[in-house]
Design goal:
By secondary structure, the protein is an alpha+beta fold. It has two domains: about 130 residues, Homeodomain-like (Arc Repressor Mutant, subunit A), CATH 1.10.10.60; about 160 residues, Alpha-Beta Barrel (Multidrug-efflux Transporter 1 Regulator Bmrr, Chain A), CATH 3.20.80.10. Helix content is about 40%, strand content about 20%. It contains eleven helices and ten strands. Strand 3 and strand 4 form a beta hairpin. Helix 1 crosses helix 2, helix 4 crosses helix 6 and helix 5 crosses helix 6. It is globular.
Length: about 325
């Protein structure tokens, strides 16, 4: 979900953060990432991950590192640690030992050392926090935010809890562009996600793969409180007919359906992350629900995305994935 270390949004873009059109190499790396992100707790090794990319282990490792800036194994373990931190943060887990074993570590001691090195806090500090409604920020991310001007919150009026609906959402077949970079700011400028949405929608329109029911979907895989800005992944998607297999210059995937807590809001782009914060740190701890495995999503009407500028109001469904 796109919660964030909050900072003010500016109307500008960073052109060098926009990825190149999806190639065969990108598609293979994307398939590997999808396998890991689908359930970081699952037992898997480099051979299985390379098989998902349809590449040899040696060739895949080299290409993955070139695209992602880290090895597949490093990405796998970092993903596991970040998800375990979210389990602690959102109250899904109360045991260091159980969490260590669930995420594939040989012992609680090995887990604690790796957790402290990657997250910057010990597992115990996540569990001993008296206030479950206060999001924790990794020290390195906090340092980054302070360099950028400090932690600033885009003020919102908290929704009423009754405005959250529990829904079973369908799977979505989507054409998408996977972005690697900050969700919000980098060097004082906007990340460019809004422009990417317009580009993906217009490209899908030219390719003739949109249907009257198509919607724009954003899928985030990281918490920018825990993941370095340059490592955050975000899929800019547009839903397409289930039978569409290939879209030139874009990748395709099926976003898994399931149970979601859905909050519809109308707000500026800069406030979206604050509504995510409310949903995850206010509504979720007070509910009887638990955070699910896999990406949460944002849903937008295509016409509104194309007509609105970055700094205007959007109607968006924030869909928080829940355990079944």
């Amino acid at each position: 979900m796109r919660e964030r270390v909050s900072q003010p949004r500016m109307c500008g873009t960073i052109s060098n953060m926009l990825p190149a059109p999806t190639s065969i190499i990108h598609r293979g790396v994307n398939r590997a990432i999808n396998l890991i992100q689908s359930d970081p707790r699952a037992v898997m090794d480099l051979d299985e991950i390379a098989d998902a990319a349809y590449l040899s282990k040696f060739h895949f490792s080299r290409l993955f590192r070139s695209c992602m800036g880290e090895t597949p194994v490093s990405f796998l373990w970092r993903t596991r640690l970040e998800h375990s931190a979210l389990d602690f943060d959102y109250g899904a887990s109360k045991s260091i030992t159980d969490t260590a074993l669930e995420y594939g570590f040989s012992s609680p001691e090995a887990f604690s050392r790796a957790f402290s090195r990657v997250i910057g806090h010990s597992p115990r500090s996540f569990l001993s926090e008296a206030d479950p409604f206060t999001p924790k920020v990794a020290p390195e991310i906090l340092d980054y935010a302070q360099i950028q001007g400090g932690l600033r919150v885009a003020k919102i009026t908290p929704p009423d809890a009754s405005s959250v609906r529990i829904k079973n959402l369908p799977a979505y077949r989507v054409a998408f562009l996977r972005r690697k970079g900050p969700y919000e700011y980098y060097g004082g400028l906007m990340s460019g996600i809004a422009d990417d949405f317009k580009a993906v929608i217009n490209h899908a329109l030219v390719q003739g793969v949109l249907s009257p029911d198509s919607i724009a979907i954003g899928a985030s895989y990281n918490s920018p409180r825990l993941t370095r800005p340059e490592q955050c992944l975000f899929d800019v998607c547009v839903s397409i007919d289930a039978g569409v297999i290939n879209v030139p210059s874009l990748d395709t995937q099926t976003l898994e359906g399931g149970r979601f807590a859905v909050l519809r809001v109308k707000c500026s782009t800069s406030q979206i992350a604050e509504y995510w914060n409310w949903l995850t740190f206010e509504w979720l701890p007070k509910s009887s629900e638990r955070l699910g495995i896999g990406s949460s999503i944002e849903r937008f009407e295509i016409g509104e995305v194309l007509s609105n500028s970055t700094c205007t109001q959007h109607t968006v469904d924030l869909c928080l994935r829940l355990r079944s």
